[in-house]
Batch of 3 targets.
Target 1
Amino acid sequence: MNIIGTVQEMQRYSEALRNSGKRVAFVPTMGYFHDGHLSLMREARKRGDCVVVSIYVNPTQFGPSEDLDKYPRNFERDRQLAEDAGADVIFFPSNAEMYPEHYQTYVNVEEVTKNLCGLSRPGHFRGVATVCAKLFNMVKPHLAIFGKKDFQQLVTIKRMVADLNMDLEIVGMPTTREQDGLAMSSRNVYLSPEERQSALCLSRSLKKAKELFDQGERDAGRILDEITGYIEGVPSTRIDYARICSTTTMKDIDRLEDESVMALAVFVGSTRLIDNYVFGEELNIE
Amino acid sequence: MNIIGTVQEMQRYSEALRNSGKRVAFVPTMGYFHDGHLSLMREARKRGDCVVVSIYVNPTQFGPSEDLDKYPRNFERDRQLAEDAGADVIFFPSNAEMYPEHYQTYVNVEEVTKNLCGLSRPGHFRGVATVCAKLFNMVKPHLAIFGKKDFQQLVTIKRMVADLNMDLEIVGMPTTREQDGLAMSSRNVYLSPEERQSALCLSRSLKKAKELFDQGERDAGRILDEITGYIEGVPSTRIDYARICSTTTMKDIDRLEDESVMALAVFVGSTRLIDNYVFGEELNIE
């Protein structure tokens, strides 16, 4: 497996692949891999001739009081896991390579980023869109694969790619879960054993919401009342948001008529976890 | 010559050229060609295997009270001039193709756009950077050629390309002038005969500034006092700005030590004209 650290080498490598007719499949990550990341890499392996995985903990998407410094990292373990999952290249740029002196350009997707994590984490999606625009220009992929766990991120990236006419396909893959339903996240390592138990309130809320929807409930307020009441009774939890939104606009909706998503962000202890359910889709939670 | 109107056709056309080893040279324009545009196309002809010229009057870079609606247009004349100058393709997208429903993504180059036209025309460079990012993703050029008359625009685009790691070269070409020194501009057609005479105050100011610099003057304030005093005495003129800035940061400077530019924006009647001089460079004004 190739490890590439500079933008120039990455661009030359991908340009040569493209010119020889090879299909480049890209999985952008912040590293510290779990099965969710590995499932994206396996999908990339199926869809591309060359699988590029980037590992970069992007400072511009973290707020000043967030967990940038303590975000978990383990390059050697990640390298081995990526190789086993079928990656051909790890792109591992430095901060100096990504944001050199005089850096000053940002991409703003203005509407779909206003609600949910955009409200709770000002500047987060500006950082996400910017680093993805940069990475896409570096890796020049034919397709890039993202997890649906970060649903608003996926919508934002799709919107940016369409709006800026970036010539690549964005693929969203289902959330990978622990056996008991907890969505996999690099941040799960922050949880104490008691918090790990409380963290199940997110996936269980999705399951409750799906059940209500399947029984015919279409009033967003009634579903949310049920969910927030339930989460408030779980120890060590604090709801950051619990909303039902249009998947097109990411604005709150009252009635579940067009495609809609229930999105949750809950602090469990001091760890902020997110999860979501697109109404009408499958949900494999026991 | 090929005329292409859709993003998809343009991308497929350029991707095929790139894959066959051809070099794509791009000249983005708002049309209504004068010799300045044609000189950029002739340069593109020298540097590329295929010359693509876009014609698009971009609404997002015009302010609400600006001249979007009356901006001069003449496609048939432009088509002939571009063909004579060596263009292979005119890319001529519609507003619906460029900014479809739900459009919401903008590129902001935050620092070099603060001064000069960025002060006078809020949102202008956001529109310029965004449309150039889009056009570069559509045309996929190896190089793009811009005139130095729009100096702050050139600095902004270079900054965006470097920051977002767009894999193309940006080439700046000297300003083309009328015999009497007036910088060529599509907006010169707005000038009455008397205003056309007053409009010479811009190029004559540059020449005065160059003479002062060549005589050893390095105090920006003294050069600007001389220039503004001169322009204020010319009929039908109103200075929008007259500044001396660093070409790296585009911030005002007091002493001409590192590379610096004198930038002028002057209303002549109701027509706003710009011009600039990078100290130390040639200036062919009689």
Note: The longest strand of chain A covers residues 237-246.
Target 2
Amino acid sequence: MNATTPANTTASQATISESNRSRILQHLYHHGVSSRAQIAKALELTPAAITKITARLIEAGVIKETGDIEGSKNRRSIGLKLDTSHFRVIGVKFARSLVQIGVFDLAGNRLSLDNLPTVSNDTVWDTIATIHTKVNDLLANDKRIMAVGMAVPGPYLRGIGRIAVVSSMQEWRKVNFLREFADAFRVPVFLEQDARAGALAEYLFDPDITADNLAYYLVGEGVGLGAIDNGHLINGALGAATEIGHVSIDVNGRPCDCGNVGCLERYCSAGAIHELVNATDGLVPGSAGMSHAEACRALFALCEEGDEEANHLLRQVARFVGYGCVTIFNAFNPSHIVLGDIVSEAGAPLLNEVRRVVDERVISELNDSTTITLSGLSTDAAVAGAAAVAITQFLEHPSVFFDVT
Amino acid sequence: MNATTPANTTASQATISESNRSRILQHLYHHGVSSRAQIAKALELTPAAITKITARLIEAGVIKETGDIEGSKNRRSIGLKLDTSHFRVIGVKFARSLVQIGVFDLAGNRLSLDNLPTVSNDTVWDTIATIHTKVNDLLANDKRIMAVGMAVPGPYLRGIGRIAVVSSMQEWRKVNFLREFADAFRVPVFLEQDARAGALAEYLFDPDITADNLAYYLVGEGVGLGAIDNGHLINGALGAATEIGHVSIDVNGRPCDCGNVGCLERYCSAGAIHELVNATDGLVPGSAGMSHAEACRALFALCEEGDEEANHLLRQVARFVGYGCVTIFNAFNPSHIVLGDIVSEAGAPLLNEVRRVVDERVISELNDSTTITLSGLSTDAAVAGAAAVAITQFLEHPSVFFDVT
């Protein structure tokens, strides 16, 4: 038998070790302080492997030993801890007219948030320059920041670094995010489609979410979806899967900039709602001069006050959000659908109408086994999704961040 | 540190070994005769691991040593081989009115095929009984058969064992496939939704298909989809994901038995085509008395003869097949879409119209990077999908079939 080259042998061991390191970090992240024995039991790893890997993680400063904790049979054992407050990431969320930059700890606690000036088609490049400056300033002032995550509207072409379709503000299409940011800072940068970033945020930061089949349904300036199937984020060949906003709900319906007809986004995005509001007889005074988000929030405020016309309009929109939900059931069969971003701020009246549509149109076995909730993360905190992208990379590929080998 | 229980330690080692065994078998399956060094290099496994695992696989009779093969630097080394003709599986495909039972070798070569008498709503239970008898007969006569794979129409509720929706022939809904078949034979039985089975067949048996992002688009008595994303079959929480036939293409369209409105299946399944043919002024004489498949094939024959009305009707249907394709692009972004089952027999005229719709409606970057082809497996061979379900299990979980530990 020929021997393999040492490089291959090493690669093999490195791959397995990195996978085990990642599993240990994820266990500590999700379960808090744990003993080596508890980790070994949960992950079905040998005590020897745990001892070796945790020693290197402690040496590299990634995890720490805490005082004794109660083990099984009342034996005391040393606890291990991933100190989520010790490391930080920057999240940058791009949402056409709004760019937000936040600093987060690993648990998803937001330490600062910076809303950049409203972006117009003319100021896209100024905004890019501002992001460079601001991120560099943040990095210079806080050595604990170890990565930048960015969430960009889909369909985002991962390999190319460009957004394929932007319904308004065409200048965004010209931005190559990879070229602009991939090697721009002292820490690694990770880019993800925004709804997929949102799914990661729900998965990491919401303690009530335990599903391995999770869909984050972003209804905001765009309409998007991030779907986790059995623990794997569905990506597609180019990273352009789960683009629910461009799935047609009416093949004879409204044309969309993407080339398709009847795209869901044309019926229930913040922009579509803004159009509906503008078309009323002054339901929201001055709505024409508002941003999409402002117009939506003004509508939702009227709904809360009991305004009948406003509530009628909201129900109309909610039915379309519901049709999107029905498609999510049949295309992805998640066990939990989280509705987030601007439009989800409409709250209970929206959710009730969505559930009504789902009750009418979804197979009962699927409906019965699926939870639909509003996101527990506030819309301003949607930038948390961008942070979650970076944190996920840290948990999955620790050796990129620390010398743990 | 507390020691883990021996059971956990064992489980850990067993999991890793099974995974490596599986990877070695899959390598031999896809690449043919290989030396231990070639396998070690391709899989980044240590020579020691390869030696140990292949020794056990040889001992258990799963793989064999062949004569010397040419290694690197002209050194000779011993070849290893998975003899795909030595092991056999039974595939059973359920398609409402047609049930087929085939015997296959591991390479997907069909050794026998049995079309059961056309099933009506009244003969569903007789058919179940016949399957029991026929499979037992096949197993009694061929000791090399080591598993049964079954492909059933979706939405198939994997945990419960039932089909959730059947648009015609309601008796099928009462069949619990798990209860009927899971423990019925001397070999293990594996069940899968039919389009997902088709995706596995394309992935395993078609040498031209190398994509890790593959969609098999089944357009037959039902309309279904099996999607492989980065090598993982998308399942959903209950196994009811990728039910493209019940994704609405028109939320104000035709009602469907599933409760949804405008389901794709209502526009381009073999049954929908049959209805269209029946509604013509005798385009296909005697069509009302035909099966759906017969009516479709009669229509396609007329198309080939150049009949204008027939071609017009086909183009109309093909546009709907195309709308489904557009949804597949935006929901799953595969790099290869394979169109299969009865309707795909319409051939080039169908495919051309589907491509026309896709050219009109899909983002160019996605369109440019995605291949759409007709299945190379003939419709009768669609039962190969059922066989592929069993073969996939063998390749992924060899210890279920052989004592290799």
Note: Residues 1-11 of chain B have pLDDT under 50 and may be disordered.
Target 3
Amino acid sequence: MLKPSKTAFVPFVSVENMMRLVLHIGIEKVLTELAAEIEADFARWPLFDKTPRVASHSDVGVIELMPTSDGETYGFKYVNGHPSNMKRGLQTVTAFGLLADVATGYPLMLSEMTILTALRTAATSAMAAKWLAPKGATTMAMIGNGAQAEFQALAFKAICGLREVRLYDIDPAATEKAARNLAGQGLTVVPCKSAEEAIMGAQIITTCTADKQYATILTDNMVGSGVHINGVGGDCPGKTELHRDILLRSSIFVEYPPQTRIEGEIQQLDPDHPVTELWQVITGQAEGRRDARQITLFDSVGFAIEDFSALRYVHSRLKGTGLYQDLDMIADPDDPRDLFGMILRAEAASSTAA
Amino acid sequence: MLKPSKTAFVPFVSVENMMRLVLHIGIEKVLTELAAEIEADFARWPLFDKTPRVASHSDVGVIELMPTSDGETYGFKYVNGHPSNMKRGLQTVTAFGLLADVATGYPLMLSEMTILTALRTAATSAMAAKWLAPKGATTMAMIGNGAQAEFQALAFKAICGLREVRLYDIDPAATEKAARNLAGQGLTVVPCKSAEEAIMGAQIITTCTADKQYATILTDNMVGSGVHINGVGGDCPGKTELHRDILLRSSIFVEYPPQTRIEGEIQQLDPDHPVTELWQVITGQAEGRRDARQITLFDSVGFAIEDFSALRYVHSRLKGTGLYQDLDMIADPDDPRDLFGMILRAEAASSTAA
């Protein structure tokens, strides 16, 4: 066969190379730099091509495509959500993504995004809390100790100065796992036997559970004044974590309203219930936390721009590391109109070689 | 680093391996088998999750995602359309696609689709002509001799019994290229100096040009009664190839009306102008060609189900060939909730190794 030309190749970041890259840079540094990238992209929010994710639902889960573009670079993520996967020993959420050049439509990078999604979700949560959590918050309750928990804890440590994380999960094995992984990471880790115990003394409450159903992880009486709630787990139609009464007492901040109204906690509210877009807090067009008694809720569902920021960050950090493989993904005949001739020449080359 | 488990791997079909697979099976056999797969999927059309493609337009082109699912398997294609790429020596259209398991959301196969799109477009065109072209049609005019031309000609030969193809392109070099590639493939190939010359004696007219603008490749007086028009090039908003008067005289057949109304030739017509869905002709719910004098038009824009059929076909033909690489694309910790622990263990393994 003839060798593919340079244009034919797309750098691919495998799971192993993503882990190497994260370890090479340092996980807290990655989270901090990612949060800065995401914040910078939120600050130029109006510039992006935005669309709610394109979801394909089945009885057991959902497969989604999340595209966006800033006019120069295009990105999309493929991501699934299958709560029942865990029972089969599979990931609830797996993902990969792609960056492409808007001017040519040619892919720039393909990357695993299962690890990267956990990182970007945590970085987004902590970035939002920086704007919304009460001053001097140092203790966080973490309800739901699955795949995302440790990433969330470390992001809040690196970005918001968190010192103590209080862990609770309906499955004690998940809490043990998270406590074990977080040992020696510079946080006081307190495993708890109930959600009530976990929220004791916490100024920030993160909910990150995976059931695809209406659930009440937090009831109204559990949430006192002044708290910041980081609601991560409610992220598709029919999947919520908070009692409706909590929402009615909270100032609600969201990523992209048309998507959050369908997928977030606010699917429980009237379609015109007032919410604030986080990007407007960052640009100063809207107010964040007003006072110490206010309950703030970041109703996070995950938006395409966060994935875009994460992919661009990885792409920018890749140069010189060698932490990628070249994939022969783009057909690149010498004459672009001669796709068929490329096959004919491949045949000729292969019979010459034989 | 620890070795990724079997679940972590996704088979990837590179451009080189796609060419090898096509040559291994034989290109006309691939086109015939592909047309049968596409026809079988059109016959179970109502079963599919259908959505118009998700397009991101810029001044110079478009990047699109085309997802669909039959409830068991999910597929999507990434495809760009950049007419100006050719001047830079790049492909106008490049593509790749993915199959996934609906039950778990896990990817089953990643594949190049630049070559595969040319194959599936040609197979779809010829499959439609089998239902719509006049009986005994053996001569086709091929207007636009770019990357798709030879695939179209061979599909019509293999599936519809085409014997003669008459080539015309505004760029004589494109016609020379197509004529050279088609020499010795069992067709009478007639290079022509004008579109008028190309359509002489042709019962089938294929238009496959790439300008992103309203163009008139065929004027009204060029199209006589009884002809079948296979309109392939008009496939995005603002891009058409046929004069409106031709459409008014034709029986129009389309893939998926909500998409074709936006992207096809019929964007020139009233939104309620009657069209027939091709799948209904295949299932016998609608009439195809009624008589020998009727002008039939397949206003083809390319639909996600065709890509789905093509990906499934490649996937089914891959076993035992070795014509793929395993990509480490899915993070697969031993405990699915322990994504963070996987990174910690990778670090430990790497420091032990060092």
Note: The mean pLDDT of chain B is 92.
